[in-house]
């Protein structure tokens, strides 16, 4: 314990010395996040500096092994680092699907060469990844995917279409589920990595109800993918896909925490007694969810979490976040309805509110998560 | 870290089978209810609690106790909740011990509590709703001591208790935390009238009428006019403990219900195959896990003396009560007609939940307190 307290003191001192003041202010939106990648435009020198110093210490991925660009920290040390970053208000130096989704899957299923190559790039924020999972005909029934990868000897030839590919138009590489066999539904899926600049890849942003386009349609037309970019065994990609989904759901469940340190009721100003009561009930659930999140992460790190727990967390966190934004809209009244005024910061409240409606759809709908909990945790029949 | 230590797991491994066997519904709750026991709990079982070192779980080691904390007490209470075990553990070993600790009255009562011979009760509520700041009952100085006048209700185990900790006003007025004093009033005090209604869950909670009840100056727990401090300690411990017990109630009810979904057939199918029930069951599971984490967090913060404990205790009490209410309501509904019968245990969980949910403040009281503590 004494060692951990020393680690805490050293970490705090290092963060105070190295985190630029600009990076200690709350992010205003997803756009303030540092996504990294080949084409990323840093918003400020401070944003780049913060990424560089954290990456050089391995602290963009503090609990990954050092040989793959991580910090090699224990679960307890990782938790302390997060707590100290929160205490100082430090922004996350790097937001990336490489960190939250692909990385854990590669750590488990990647070859040594793949880990060395891809994980170090992810840790340094050099490559921005996107996720090729859903297809027009394969949403909740993800394993029904049809994008085909034909074996051409030294490479696969990929043809098909993905949809809801987050930031595909800004991503450098994709981790993609493809069909390598039609003999078996789940047993004919493989997990490929490839460059979005490969010939035959094109993307088209999808305009959402929020007026923003965080998702794209992604098309593959005779895309050549070298065989050493297959993760895990051919036709066993569903295992990798499911494992990665667990991490995606864990990440999405974080939405339940909201960004604010304060209770919602302390941030919305004067409201009527009925709304105050609703907000207070929400705050009880939000603080309770934060306690659950902390316990869930501790259990995960200790290897004590049920494999289906991310589904419970994803369901609870996203339903909570939707409720949060319903209440923000209610508290905002007609002010919150403005869509384009400067006063409303370009309709931030309304657009953020609409964005949250995707929370309980993306990464598997609430209904899919409940089905997984019913089957794998409660072991209900026929689920 | 929000995972149990090895020692805490060992405690759980001891208490879980003990409560499932010795504190089982048939052996304790139904037995005492159906034989018209006036205490509402078994004194033999309370002795067994003492032999296991549970009655003194929070009493410091220097005074002969186990010197453990809210987390450990919570583990015991979860098992009590799971088995609906009638016991004075929450009021005596958790709330009252926290009120008495460090006071001269501790020397007087701790040995009996350790031995499983003494039961303590708390007299706080004066109206139908919990409102400790609103306490108005008067205690006036008289000679070397005080004289108490007024009424209290929802005094759990008040009829069996050897000592009742009574919060009364020696100064100030209702709405102020200053000016309250906590008195240890012994059983059978002159002028104390005890009416003991049985509650919905077959537990006993007294209505007390104080008609010029005289107590010595040394009956004061802590400081005169400074009763808010021991009362707050008792309330924090009692509320966190009730939250853990509610988690146990919710777990017991939901385990029974999930099992029923795997056994009951209608339309030629197990009812657990219907998605309409699967999704509700999965939602319930999540709510109980969240309540469990919240109760653990509140207990950890209390044990650490963290200033955030006050808020988390109210979050835990509110969340656990709501999750447990959902568990028992879904439990009875999913059992269908059999769930409405006295023969089946699921209804007993419903009756326990509504009492425990109200004890030391219901979910609305604590939700409002969360808002106030958060500054709105």
Description:
The model of chain A has no long low-confidence stretch (mean pLDDT 95). In chain A, the strands form two sheets. A four-stranded mixed beta sheet of chain A has the order 1-4-5-8. Chain A has a four-stranded antiparallel beta sheet with strand order 2-3-7-6, with no helix packed on it. Helix content of chain A is 42%, strand content 14%. Chain A has ten helices and eight strands. Chain A is globular. The N and C termini of chain A lie far apart (44 Å). Chain B has three domains: 6-119, Acyl-CoA dehydrogenase/oxidase, N-terminal domain (Butyryl-Coa Dehydrogenase, subunit A, domain 1), CATH 1.10.540; 122-226, Beta Barrel (Butyryl-CoA Dehydrogenase, subunit A, domain 2); 229-373, Up-down Bundle (Butyryl-CoA Dehydrogenase, subunit A, domain 3). Helices cover 49% and strands 15% of the residues of chain B. Chain B contains eleven helices and ten strands. Chain B has helices spanning 6-22, 29-34, 43-51, 70-83, 89-100, 104-115, 228-261, 275-303, 309-335, 346-358, 363-373, and strands at 120-123, 138-142, 145-156, 163-169, 180-186, 192-195, 205-216, 220-221, 265-266, 269-270. In chain B, strand 9 (265-266) and strand 10 form a beta hairpin. The two termini of chain B are 30 Å apart. The model of chain B has no long low-confidence stretch (mean pLDDT 97). The A-B interface holds A 76, 79, 262-263, 265-266, 276-277, 279-281, 283-285, 287-289, 291-292, 294-296, 298-299, 302, 304, 312, 315-316, 367, 369-371, 373-374, 377-383 and B 1-3, 258, 261-262, 269-270, 272-273, 275, 277-279, 281-283, 285-286, 289-291, 293-294, 296-297, 311-312, 315-316, 318-319, 322, 366-368, 370-371, 374-376.
């Amino acid at each position: 314990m004494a060692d951990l307290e020393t680690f805490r003191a050293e970490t705090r001192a290092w963060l105070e010395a190295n985190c630029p003041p600009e990076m200690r202010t709350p992010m205003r939106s997803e756009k303030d996040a540092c996504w990294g990648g080949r084409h990323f435009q840093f918003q400020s020198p401070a944003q780049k500096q913060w990424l560089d110093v954290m990456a050089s210490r391995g602290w963009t991925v503090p609990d990954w092994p050092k040989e793959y660009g991580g910090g090699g920290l224990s679960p307890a040390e990782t938790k302390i680092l997060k707590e100290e970053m929160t205490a100082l208000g430090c922004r996350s130096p790097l937001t990336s699907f490489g960190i939250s989704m692909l990385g854990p899957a590669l750590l488990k299923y990647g070859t040594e060469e793949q880990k060395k190559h891809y994980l170090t790039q992810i840790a340094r924020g050099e490559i921005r990844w996107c996720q090729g999972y859903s297809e027009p005909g394969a949403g909740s029934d993800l394993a029904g995917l049809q994008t085909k990868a034909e074996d051409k000897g030294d490479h696969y030839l990929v043809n098909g279409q993905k949809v809801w590919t987050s930031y595909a138009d800004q991503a450098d590489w994709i981790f993609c589920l493809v069909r390598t066999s039609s003999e078996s539904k789940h047993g004919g899926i493989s997990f490929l990595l490839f460059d979005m600049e490969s010939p035959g890849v094109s993307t088209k942003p999808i305009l959402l109800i929020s007026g923003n386009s965080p998702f794209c349609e992604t098309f593959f037309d005779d895309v050549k993918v070298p065989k050493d970019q297959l993760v895990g065994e051919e036709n066993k990609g569903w295992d990798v896909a499911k494992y990665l989904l667990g991490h995606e759901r864990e990440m999405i469940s974080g939405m339940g925490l909201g960004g604010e340190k304060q209770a919602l009721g302390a941030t919305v100003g004067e409201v009527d007694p009925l709304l105050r009561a609703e907000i207070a009930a929400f705050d009880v659930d939000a603080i309770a969810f934060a306690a659950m999140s902390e316990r869930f992460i501790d259990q995960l790190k200790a290897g004590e979490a049920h494999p289906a727990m991310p589904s419970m967390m994803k369901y609870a966190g996203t339903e909570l976040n939707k409720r949060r934004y319903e209440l923000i809209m209610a508290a905002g009244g007609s002010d919150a309805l403005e869509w384009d005024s400067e006063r409303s910061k370009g309709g931030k409240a309304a657009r953020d509110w609409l964005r949250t409606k995707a929370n309980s759809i993306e990464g598997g709908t609430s209904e899919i998560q409940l089905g997984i909990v019913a089957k794998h945790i409660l072991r209900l029949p026929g689920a | 870290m929000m995972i149990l230590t090895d020692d805490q797991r060992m405690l759980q491994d001891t208490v879980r089978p003990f409560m499932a066997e010795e504190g089982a519904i048939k052996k304790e709750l139904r037995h005492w209810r159906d034989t018209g026991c006036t205490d509402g709990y078994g004194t033999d079982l309370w002795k067994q609690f003492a032999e296991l070192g549970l009655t003194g779980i929070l009493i410091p080691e220097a005074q002969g106790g186990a010197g453990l904390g809210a987390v450990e007490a919570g583990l015991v209470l979860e098992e009590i909740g799971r088995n609906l075990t009638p016991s004075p553990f929450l009021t005596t070993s958790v709330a009252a011990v926290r009120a008495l600790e460090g006071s001269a009255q501790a020397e007087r009562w701790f040995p009996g509590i350790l031995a499983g011979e003494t039961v303590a009760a708390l007299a706080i509520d004066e109206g139908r709703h919990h409102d400790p700041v609103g306490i108005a009952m008067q205690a006036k100085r008289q000679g070397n001591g005080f004289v108490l006048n007024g009424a209290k209700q929802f005094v759990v185990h008040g009829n069996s208790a050897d000592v009742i900790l009574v919060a009364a006003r020696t100064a100030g007025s209702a709405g102020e935390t200053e000016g309250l004093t906590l008195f240890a009033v012994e059983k059978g005090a002159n002028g104390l009238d005890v009416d003991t209604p049985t509650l919905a869950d077959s537990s006993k909670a007294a209505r007390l009428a104080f008609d010029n009840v005289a107590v010595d100056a040394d009956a004061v727990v802590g400081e005169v006019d400074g009763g808010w401090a021991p009362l707050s300690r008792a309330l924090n411990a009692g509320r966190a403990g009730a939250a853990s017990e509610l988690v146990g109630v919710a777990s017991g009810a939901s385990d029974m219900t999930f099992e029923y979904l795997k056994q009951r057939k209608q339309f030629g199918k197990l009812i657990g195959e219907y998605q309409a029930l699967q999704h509700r069951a999965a939602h319930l599971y999540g709510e109980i896990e969240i309540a469990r984490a919240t109760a653990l967090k509140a207990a950890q913060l209390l044990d650490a003396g963290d200033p955030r404990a006050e808020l988390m205790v109210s979050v835990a009490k509110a969340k656990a009560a709501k999750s447990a209410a959902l568990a028992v309501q879904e439990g009875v509904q999913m059992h269908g007609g059999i769930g409405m019968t006295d023969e089946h245990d699921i209804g007993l969980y419903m009756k326990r939940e509504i009492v425990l949910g109200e004890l030391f403040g219901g979910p609305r009281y604590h939700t409002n307190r969360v808002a106030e503590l958060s500054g709105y």
